[in-house]
């Protein structure tokens, strides 16, 4: 771990980017990272004359370096599912570098140091390092930006417009985890909603009121795992349109077509067409009401038989009260191929977030999941389970 951090810092130190330390790199997925402005402030010399202190060589050098930021999410979780589990967790440790290659070309590097999702651990079950983001973005104008590398796909609000640092709850919904993070191999290989490819995006209708009426994304990617070359000729297509009829409110529709490997009655099928649809609406007043709902569907079939057929929905409501954000979320998921799966549930979440400072927030979530009759058999005939999470996010 030390060697990796030193290597990253070494690369940053020799960077020739031209970003000002007080700039914000254009990026669609807000990470809620606080940066420090190292540009000297203007000093008042007399009542009628202001002057700016001359920058030192060190300050000029700092201005050319990328901004290094990140966060740690850690805490405690209890889960009544199965034999019950109680554990302190380090859910995420992110290291992020944002900067500029030229005045109109920015880049992002994001490393995930704690990820313990099935299929991502080593032979001893320990959590591994993972490259999450490694992309460059060229801004031609507001209507056209070109992104290349490994980036987060514009499927739904949660995967593209939110991050663990800005999410109202500790974890995302299963629309994000099971649909967006689905890959062409199997469930135990996680793609984190990322892929390698090229994406066009932009804002087409500025309102003149601080927001854009219409934005779009069009992505062409491998449809494989992060950090892995494609193994076939097929590519994944993702298209998304966001409409903002008024301030703080937007409606988003996203679509994906790709190919999927699946199994029916122990028979393996390769390169089957797979589609994903996610539709949602979101109203968020940073000083008041927060309402968001999304519906998602994923499907793949062979000769009229479903390989994958799943539907998901959630609706979240919260209200910003000073530093506090109480939330309630209802969600459901249905796997219509695997009826006995514990992914067939209705769930209620009660949560509370406290923003102690701009760099520190605490979250407590309680979830009660009620399973369908077929699914509860997989839970020792128990019709429900509960989970408690108490987490802190510490940013730098």
UniProtKB/TrEMBL annotation:
<feature type="signal peptide">
    <location>
        <begin position="1"/>
        <end position="21"/>
    </location>
</feature>
<keyword id="KW-0732">Signal</keyword>
<dbReference type="InterPro" id="IPR010870">
    <property type="entry name" value="Porin_O/P"/>
</dbReference>
<protein>
    <submittedName>
        <fullName>Porin</fullName>
    </submittedName>
</protein>
<dbReference type="InterPro" id="IPR023614">
    <property type="entry name" value="Porin_dom_sf"/>
</dbReference>
<dbReference type="Pfam" id="PF07396">
    <property type="entry name" value="Porin_O_P"/>
</dbReference>
């Amino acid at each position: 771990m030390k060697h990796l951090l030193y290597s990253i810092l070494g690369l940053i130190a020799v960077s020739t980017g031209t970003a000002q330390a007080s700039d914000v790199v254009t990026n669609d997925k807000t990470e809620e990272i606080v940066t420090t402005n190292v540009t000297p402030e203007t000093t008042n010399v007399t009542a009628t004359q202001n002057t700016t202190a001359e920058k030192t060589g060190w300050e000029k050098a700092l201005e050319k370096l990328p901004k290094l930021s990140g966060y740690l999410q850690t805490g405690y979780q209890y889960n009544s599912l199965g034999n019950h589990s109680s554990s302190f967790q380090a859910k995420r440790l992110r290291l992020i570098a944002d900067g500029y290659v030229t005045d109109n070309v920015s880049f992002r590097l994001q490393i995930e140091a704690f990820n313990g999702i099935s299929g991502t651990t080593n032979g001893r079950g320990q959590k591994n390092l993972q490259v999450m983001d490694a992309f460059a973005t060229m801004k031609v104008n507001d209507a056209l930006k070109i992104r290349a590398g490994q980036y987060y796909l514009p499927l739904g609000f949660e995967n593209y417009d939110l991050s663990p640092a800005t999410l109202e709850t500790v974890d995302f919904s299963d629309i994000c985890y099971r649909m967006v993070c689905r890959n062409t191999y199997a469930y135990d290989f996680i793609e984190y909603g990322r892929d390698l490819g090229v994406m066009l995006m932009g804002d087409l209708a500025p309102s003149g009121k601080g927001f854009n009426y219409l934005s779009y994304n069009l992505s062409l990617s491998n449809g494989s795992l992060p950090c892995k070359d494609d193994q076939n000729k097929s590519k994944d297509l993702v298209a998304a349109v966001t409409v903002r009829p008024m301030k703080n409110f937007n409606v988003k529709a996203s679509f994906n077509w790709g190919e999927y490997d699946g199994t029916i009655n122990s028979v393996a099928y390769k390169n089957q067409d797979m589609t994903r649809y996610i539709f949602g609406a979101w109203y968020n007043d940073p000083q008041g009401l927060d309402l968001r709902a999304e519906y998602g569907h994923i499907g793949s079939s062979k000769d009229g038989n479903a390989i994958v057929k799943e539907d998901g929905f959630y609706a979240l409501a919260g209200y910003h009260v000073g530093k506090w954000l109480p939330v309630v979320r209802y969600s459901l998921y249905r796997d219509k191929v695997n009826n006995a799966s514990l992914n067939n549930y209705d769930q209620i979440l009660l949560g509370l977030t406290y923003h102690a400072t701009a760099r520190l927030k605490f979250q407590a979530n309680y979830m009660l999941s009620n399973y369908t009759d077929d699914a509860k058999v997989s839970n020792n005939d128990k019709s429900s389970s509960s989970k408690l999470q108490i987490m802190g996010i510490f940013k730098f």
